[in-house]
Design brief:
With about 525 residues, this protein is α+β, with helices and mostly antiparallel strands. The protein is built from nine helices and 29 strands. Strand 22 and strand 23 form a beta hairpin. Helix 4 packs across helix 5. The chain is globular, with a radius of gyration of 32 Å. It starts with 10 loop residues before the first helix and ends with a helix.
Length: about 525
């Protein structure tokens, strides 16, 4: 038997319930003979009790629990089917199949159908018996709540746009150790949850780097709670719920065969944006009956999105703790259009125009050095607390890849493993990778913690430095004083042994972009090879 389907470890409650059932049965509370004796007694006639016809089902000497004159099933969440006194859940969030639970459900049915009255064929309960049975039913039902699974894949939804849009998500949690682990699934892409804390029946997911957290409480069938993103200008709050997914799958299968879906590459025109300035591309493809896609902007892609059909419209979604995104699309006059939803922000309308050749798109603004002959300089605090500068001896005569990033940036999460690969492959040839991080807060200790989490998540080995907050004053002083048109995190600088910047790449095209991601990998390797020659 699956341990997750057993009653919770409320052993005193369960023991009391089982003991009560045995006592009631052994003392004849539900005995037909006891009822008939009472009915026929002179005392009953003296008080004018009416004789009520009894519809016998089976052996008249059998227990009242085996006799039913009606099959009343009160509405229950998830749907409950009853047969021969056995209760079974019809939904993924139902109660556990258990003989004690079956008795409790039978009792609840009797009480709701004919509370303390003799309308049913079952012998009437006396006032004290009715109260005792009600108390018994409540005790047993309380004991039958399912335990939170220790290891499972979960399916949930989170509300965007003030609850008007629901984004489905999957996550895998392992709560068996004192330090629980887990990750979100978007298609086959896994995004680890940095910090998971369990206190009784409550879970907290921490996304310290992004300044966000999820808090939920297990109610016996599902986890309900709130996702909160904290910012100086206020908090963003999103409601969510999740339940163990017995038919666990990491894909959102298309439920409408024959429906139309976007496919291929499109130029994206957002509302209020001039068409001759749009440099954002959308790409969609089908895989195993699911729709995948993403938007690719000059400052990076939106991450892998997975789609489904609801009411004849397409919706593609992404939830990773860092991102809560939904895009709804519909086709009219052979043109796809829709809305982009991000958390509780106002939705942005857009139109997709078929564009097979992305090289024909307008060239986005380029980030360049203000003085091409000057070296790029940096200074920051390492995870160990040391102050490190570009002028230190450790960097002299070395080729550098300087990655301007932030632990809050999902594109930076995607680029980290590639940069670490370059460090390992070309490090012996004199290449050093340095990540210079600009964080949401200027708290040094918090920044060091976040950088460590960032490194641990992907096993990164290259140097990472905290260079202050995202405030304009700090960014202008450290970056825009040296760079023209700095606009993207990450922005990656390829620096020669002489300290001069040879190439600058703005943004990053992650795994969700498919072939664009592969092209980016090849380009970074080629640039690294040129630096170490």
């Amino acid at each position: 038997m699956n341990s997750n389907l057993r009653p919770t470890a409320a052993s005193p409650t369960m023991a009391l319930a089982i003991t009560s059932i045995g006592w009631l049965l052994s003392n004849g509370w539900f005995s037909r003979r006891a009822w008939l004796r009472e009915r026929r007694s002179p005392h009953a006639k003296k008080h004018g009790r009416r004789r009520i016809g009894v519809h016998h089902m089976g052996n008249p000497s059998s227990s009242g629990l085996q006799t039913r004159a009606m099959t009343y099933s009160p509405p229950r969440r998830g749907g409950v089917a009853r047969s021969a006194g056995v209760v079974s859940s019809a939904g993924p969030v139902g109660r556990a199949d258990h003989p004690v639970c079956a008795v409790a459900s039978l009792g609840a049915s009797t009480i709701q159908a004919s509370p303390c009255r003799a309308r049913a064929s079952r012998p009437p309960l006396r006032a004290g018996e009715c109260g005792a049975f009600l108390l018994l039913a409540l005790l047993v039902l309380a004991a039958c709540s399912k335990a939170m699974p220790e290891q499972a894949t979960w399916a949930g939804t989170i509300e965007l746009a003030q609850g008007n849009v629901h984004v489905p998500f999957h996550m895998v949690l392992d709560l068996r150790s004192p330090k629980p682990t887990g990750y979100f699934l978007v298609g086959d892409e896994k995004t680890p949850i940095p910090e998971i804390t369990r206190q009784g029946e409550s879970l907290t997911f921490g996304f310290s780097e992004y300044g966000a957290e999820m808090r939920g409480t297990w109610d016996g069938g599902q986890l309900n709670g709130t996702y909160a993103r904290h910012r100086r200008q206020g908090d963003t709050l999103l409601k969510f719920s999740a339940a163990p997914d017995l038919g666990a799958t990491s894909r959102s299968e298309l439920r409408s065969s024959g429906a139309e879906f976007p496919s291929g590459k499109y130029q994206v025109y957002f509302e209020g944006e001039a068409r001759n300035q749009s440099a954002t591309v959308a790409t969609f493809w089908m895989q195993e009956e699911s729709l995948y896609g993403t938007f690719i902007a000059p400052d990076g892609d939106y991450g892998l999105l997975v789609g489904n059909v609801s009411g004849g419209k397409v919706q593609v979604n992404r939830f990773t703790g860092w991102q809560a995104i939904a895009m709804t699309l519909g086709k009219k006059d052979q043109m796809w259009s829709g809305n982009y939803y991000f958390q509780n922000d106002k939705p942005r309308g857009f139109v997709l125009f078929p564009q097979p050749n992305i090289d024909a798109l307008p060239i986005p603004k380029q980030t360049t050095m203000k003085n091409p002959d000057a070296p790029f300089t940096f200074e920051g605090v390492s995870i160990s607390g040391d102050t490190i500068r570009s002028s230190d001896d450790r960097f002299k005569g070395k080729s550098l890849i300087v990655d301007i990033m932030g632990t809050w940036c999902h594109n930076c999460l995607d680029s980290g493993p590639l940069l670490d690969e370059l460090q390992k492959r070309y490090g012996n040839n004199g290449l050093q990778v340095v990540g210079i991080s600009f964080e949401i807060s200027d708290d040094v200790e918090l920044a060091k913690k976040n950088l460590q989490l960032f490194k641990d998540r992907n096993g990164l080995t290259y140097t990472m430095l905290f260079c202050g907050s995202l405030d304009d004053e700090n960014v202008n002083k450290r970056l825009r004083s040296q760079l023209n048109n700095f606009f993207a995190y990450p922005t990656t600088l390829f620096v020669g042994r002489d300290g001069k910047v040879r190439a600058i790449n703005s943004g990053f095209k992650g795994p969700g972009t498919g072939e664009e991601y592969q092209a980016q990998i090849r380009e970074f390797h080629e640039l690294a090879e040129k630096l170490v020659k």
